[in-house]
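Hi F.,

I've been meaning to write this up properly since the lab meeting, where we talked about keeping a consistent format for the predictions we share between groups. The idea is simple: the sequence comes first, exactly as it goes in, then the structure tokens exactly as they come out, then a line or two of notes. No screenshots and no reformatting. I'm using this chain as the first example so we have something concrete to point to.
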Amino acid sequence: MKFLKKEITTIAILMIIGIFILIHSSPFLSVRSHIFVTGHPFKAFKETIRVNRVKYNRERSKLNKKNTMIYTITGNNLYDRITGNVITNYKVTKILFLYFVKDYSGT
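Output, unedited:
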């Protein structure tokens, strides 16, 4: 019985690690999972995500140092649940082979 519990625990941990790597494997999946987790589950898969070249070109030197790119979501606006501000831009940083997302206001 102890062996079975240990095996199930190991499989569960490996599945969690695999799902984490999967949702951070591309910038688009990473942005969609960030939107999903922050409280907009339907809009995460409904809206279109594009590279925001205008903001990127405006702050290219600062963003290139951090290995980041700016993505924007088109369609309906998403609102921050706490402040009520509109969120349309996301800063995606590549670390090794994974992508991590933060909301971006352009500061």
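Notes:
Residues 2-103 form one domain.
The mean pLDDT is 83.

If this format works for you, I'll send the rest the same way.

G.
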